[in-house]
Amino acid sequence: MRVITNNLRLFWRGTLLSYVALFAWLRPTTYAASKILMPLAQILFFSILGSYGTGGSNVDFYVIGNAIQIAAVSGIFGVTMSIGGDRWAGTLPYLFGTPANRLMMFFGRAFMHIIDGAFGVVIALGWGALLFGVDFSQTNLSALGLTVIITTISTCGLGLLMGCLSLLTANVMFVNNTVYFLLLIFSGANIALDTLPNWMQGFSQVLPLTRGIAASRALIAGGSFAEVSPLLVNEIGIGLAYGWLGYLLFKWFEYQAKRKGTLETV
Amino acid sequence: MKFRNIFVYWRTILRVAEITLRHQWNDSFILFSILVQPMIIAVLALFMLRGLGGDYAMFVVVGSGLTGLWSSLLFISGNSINGERWQGTLESLVSTPTPFEVIVFGKNLANVIQSLLSMTASYLLASLLFGYTLQLVAPLLFIGSVLLSIFAFISFGLIIAPLFIMYRGIQQWQNAMEFPVYILAGFLFPIAMLPGWTTPISYILPPYWAARALHETSTGGADLEKIMLAWGMMLFFSVIDLLIASRLFKVMLYKARVDATLETE
Lengths: 266, 265
What we know:
By secondary structure, chain A is mainly α. Chain A contains 11 helices and no strands. The termini of chain A are far apart.
């Protein structure tokens, strides 16, 4: 019982501190800009572009796709910075010097970003309703809420993997930005997946977000929770798989760093 | 910045541009801004606009290239003074007899020229990977538009860099400024798609006139009157931008000397 309590305390402390630490350099205005204005600008750009391409029909497709894709801002950038931040701040040796449970420590880094990311998606969907008149009257809102949380969890899973890459390479922002933009193509946020070539469709299926976006579109169009639940099960499965891969990489990095004495090298 | 300084210090400008190009070619964020992001936007737009038919692929090539130009101007030129500060070279640059804005002009020249790779990359992507046959409606006028666009973007960048230094509050919105200009300048769709009240904002943005000139000479009707209007507006805004930049640089350097804040964040 005591072990569980200690681990939970570690999880919560790590969660809170790694999130608060972000604001040591991230100013509140910058945060607000990336949380409120950037999603709005992205939704506007791709929705108008899609509207131009389709002659004004099916704007909801682009609005919902991009609103859900906003989960990747916290999921990829936020989580990566929380994990990589220990290296930049020079606290990684202390972290690896503790006997703390690595699993708790690792997954704790993503927890606040799940809440933060889901909040970002809600804001983005709010923009969609306000500016593009996305109709939620037929929507099972609690199912949509669950979908948003599951999608954010799965995106954070990918973020955990990317975060570990930030321990291995100095070019992580290049990788993160590339992954974020590739998700705009492959997740189906802006292009109907069945219009993509087969190899691209195959790649979409192993990514987080793809099923979350499809489920959100179905729910907003009036679909039932039972219809989308298989999508959600797969979505969370993919997210956990990425998170687990990240954890293995994290353990491998710790092992190699201690063995070769390369903790502080990039 | 005094217009004649461009001619007086042309060798310095070229040398600064050369060093900046060499230096930046190893920066992965710059490679992302000028190559990866515009290419991904090009792929997205090629899929999303294929219903338009006609020569939409060339329109996408030019539009996505312009997104690379703007992102590069915003993030790379916008941080060009800060970059020197982070490297500890700002004091030396400010204390040389060469006007500081001339040095930043050279850096912006490098940024804008390397950003033209965005258009080339999108061109290769559309022609080689997607198999489109791409042709310019008026190649010579297009080249003229590219040259004037370079000048307009450099001049615009000369305002952004000192503004970001003097008013940190503005720089904090940097991430949120990328897509709005893609939208307002009509890089990938006409501004007629936007509400009427946004049109005056588009008109005061040099990237809008650059997009108009480049689209008109690549996929438009090559209407000489429209092209001349866009060229004229780019020149007009470039002169205005240089005048404002001259004042901004004076204020920035004066403030830095009085407050001794050249090396402080």
